[in-house]
Amino acid sequence: MKKPKNVDVPAPDGVDMKRIRELMGPLPDETKNEEVKEPEPPVEPIEKPVEKPAPKPEVKPEPPTAPPVSKVSKAATEVNESLKATVDNLDSKAVEEQAEHLLVEPSPAESEAWLDSITKPEAGAAQVDGDGVAADDPKVASAVDDIVAHEGDTVLEAEDKKVEGTESPPKKKRGFKDFMRALWARPAARWGIIIGIILLLLAAAVVPASRYFVLNTAGARSSLGITVVDSSTQQPLKNVTVRVGAITAATDSKGFAKLDHLKLGNQTIQISKRAFTTISKPLVLGWGSNPQGLEKLDASGTQYTFIVTDFLSGKPIEKAEATSGEGDAVSDKNGKIVLSLDTSGKADTDELSIKIVAASYRDETLKITASNKETNSAKMVTNRKDVFVSKRSGTYDIYTIDVDGKNEKKLVTGTGIERPDQTLVVQQNGDLAAYVATRENARNSDGYLLSTLYLIDTKTGVLAKIDQSEQIQLVGWASDGHLVYVKIAAGASGANPKRYRLITVNSKNASDVKEIASANAFNDVLMAGDKILYAPSNALADNPSPGLFIVGADGTGSVTITSKETFNIFRTDYDTVTINASGEYYSYKIGAAPNTLAATKAPSTTNRLYIEGYGNGKSLWVDNANNKSVLMSYDKTSKKDTSLASLTGIKIPVFWLNDQYAVFRVNDGQQTADYVVNVQGGDAKKIQDVNDIDGIGRWYYY
């Protein structure tokens, strides 16, 4: 029998016929009439995860009358086309659903049923195709399985590409807050957190190390305060370095240092200063201020001793400070300073410069040798200067000078126009002086030379022009810086009710000038503390409101003491004035209620002019009784007078330099000079010869 040739069947698109031939082998001989063998039992599927299997199209066997080989190719083609159509028609949602379906691993029974539907023919189906190929041949079944698997992979790959091409929005990362919120929503986790916190707090409260660790981790910090003194003098040490960890501080003039932002728990404190031994010791810092009290340093350098006193009274000065390089020390209540210096590398003959500073005193510098072991003396002079007028140059110039006669300086140069009737009044508690002079060639309509009021800065010599008139009389300085004066208006007649004007100016703002009262004349004007007593006159014209008035130095709080015309005001003691009203005498307690006048006799004592000392509770006045002139100090607390100086010719001006020093004028026919005295004691000392210029005095415009 002639062996038939192999029939080449055209391969449908997408079907790998080469692979089919390899799997099926050569076609059987057409002339060979062999008995059709029963198909071998189906091969049990290998149990393995099916990666995204596509739905398997059912292969229907051809009728028994026409079983050609092309039916296999046709079946493969139909499968291929069906799969392609499925892929082409899938949308993204279908792909997702199909992918989920394919990701489900089929059970063994499902796999066997699916395999049987492909490999086993239906009842009555032909077993051999028209070309003599057995449809249920194991090789055919295997080839079909391979094709279906291959095409399934193609479908899955296409599906994956479509899925990959569809970009899903990026997932938002869960933050710590979201995590904690979700954790807190779970009751078990919530209670676990609460219990954990309680346990941590209990551990922190019971165990110090744990407590400090937890508090430090939470950012808690503490502070520390310490005072350092010299062990030999018990005086505070300045500029001592105190270190705890990385935090450092230096002690102040009181020897105190404070360190903040310190970690709690075990720490080490280090205290060091040049020429002193260093202290280093452990300490435990708790929550709060941690005051360390007093720490004493032992001197390791060379010690030098000084006694600091006031040059007038000889009284010791406490808290004076001596410095040299990095060394410093302060005086005790006896004025004693023990200064420890590092003199290593210095020869005995080397000179040391010691600067001594005390509040309200001029700085002093002493020069000693390194080998000096003696007790050195330092006499301190007030830093407030005397201000005076002198014509030694030919013009009336204004000078300043230290009260020990040193450091004289010309403050204001005269213009040569000044008349002798000048007035100079130094502010007791400030750096200004009120000066009245005819410095400018200003005249009224009759050619009369006008006086000008200036405020002088006693440190710089700068003049500030305040007012100008025919006559200006200074009444006094108030403690708040107001200057009170009276001026006679230029060109005004005696009948003019605005001819005399009582004015106050705020020295802190020279443009703040206020008229307190006016009249055609004033019978008397007197300043008592920060109060002004004034009496308008009816001499030249009828005054609609005569009497005696009292008002504050700033122009506020005016009160009528009496409506009777008052001619004179005598200050008989610090608290009392005696007035002559309408020919009768009355006494009045300064500051008492109105209409509390008490009838009295004419005063037997001279009128006292009190110059207030602001801050020391004292007031100065000059007693010229019994042909003697004595400078007196009245104590406002004890109500007693104390003699400060007794010299011939003591007169005004008298004024305070500070709470201790007072300056007064002496004109005894032999000299006209300024003297200085300390209210704490000691003899008065001459400062400098001066011209006799007025200060605050008795009212003289009648």
Strand content: 25-35%
Choose one word for the global shape.
Answer: extended
Uncertain ranges: 1-9, 27-39, 43-52, 63-67, 98-104, 122-135
Summarize the main sheet.
4 strands, antiparallel
Number of helices: 8
Helix content: 10-25%
Strand runs, count = 41
End-to-end span in angstroms? 175 Å
Rg for CA atoms: 58 Å
**Averaged pLDDT:** 81
Structural class: alpha+beta
Strands of the widest sheet, in order across it, are: 3-2-5-6
Can you put this structure into words, describing what you see?
A hairpin with a 4-residue loop joins strand 39 and strand 40. It is built from eight helices and 41 strands. Helix content is 17%, strand content 35%. The chain has a four-stranded antiparallel sheet. It is extended, with a radius of gyration of 58 Å. 30% of the residues are buried. The longest helix has 28 residues. Helix 3 crosses helix 5. It is α+β, with helices and mostly antiparallel strands and 702 residues long.
In brief, what are we looking at here?
The chain has 702 residues and is of the alpha+beta class.
Descriptive terms for the model:
702 residues, 41 strands, four-stranded antiparallel beta sheet, alpha+beta, disordered N terminus, single chain, extended
Please give the structural blueprint.
Layout: H1 17-24, H2 70-89, H3 92-102, H4 108-119, H5 138-165, H6 176-185, H7 187-206, H8 208-217, E1 222-230, E2 241-244, E3 247-250, E4 256-262, E5 265-272, E6 279-285, E7 291-297, E8 302-310, E9 321-324, E10 327-330, E11 336-341, E12 351-357, E13 364-369, E14 375-380, E15 386-390, E16 397-401, E17 409-412, E18 423-426, E19 432-437, E20 451-457, E21 463-469, E22 471-477, E23 482-488, E24 500-506, E25 513-519, E26 522-528, E27 531-536, E28 548-552, E29 559-562, E30 566-571, E31 576-581, E32 584-589, E33 598-599, E34 611-613, E35 618-623, E36 630-635, E37 640-646, E38 650-656, E39 661-667, E40 672-678, E41 685-689
Parallel strand pairs: 1-7, 8-14
Antiparallel strand pairs: 1-4, 2-3, 2-5, 5-6, 8-11, 9-10, 9-12, 12-13, 15-16, 16-17, 18-19, 19-20, 20-21, 22-23, 23-24, 24-25, 26-27, 27-28, 28-29, 30-31, 31-32, 32-33, 34-35, 35-36, 36-37, 38-39, 39-40, 40-41
